[in-house]
């Protein structure tokens, strides 16, 4: 009932009192991850705290979409680019951040990389191999919704972008490291 009320209010309510479909029974790469409790959903519904990436996924904004031919992912430009080319590959379903990922999400993360490479190719990005792909670690996430940053050319990022996305950043983890951790320990550390 709470889920129905939240849906009427236009809130993202996919995670209330129902587990997500599993990969085995739905063909989906998304599985149970950040199931929201009724109290969390009520808090979201009562406040102004609406996820902007969920709004983009639900076509509630006029954001230019670079990729949307997928039931699970979409891609759009970062509003504060850290490189000449900077876009985000985002899950359509709300997953809070990379720390919520588990072993069963490996195919999802791999698909995010495939989409990123495809968008780089489709947009004829020069030096597309000179890229930086990864996630911000909480609590340093700008939007609490899983999104893969894709920056290119990485070698020409300015000092500020290097601090946020570069190899020395303590709050940015590369997609390769995420995949490695998921494969070895089943979670992102």
UniProtKB/TrEMBL annotation:
**Pfam families from the xrefs?**
DcpS_C (PF11969)
- In this chain the HIT domain maps to 52-161
Q: Name one GO molecular function term.
A: catalytic activity
Please report the name of this protein according to its UniProt entry: HIT domain-containing protein
The listed location of motif Histidine triad motif is: 145-149
From what superkingdom does this record's organism come?
Answer: Eukaryota
Q: Which organism is it from?
A: Tetraodon nigroviridis
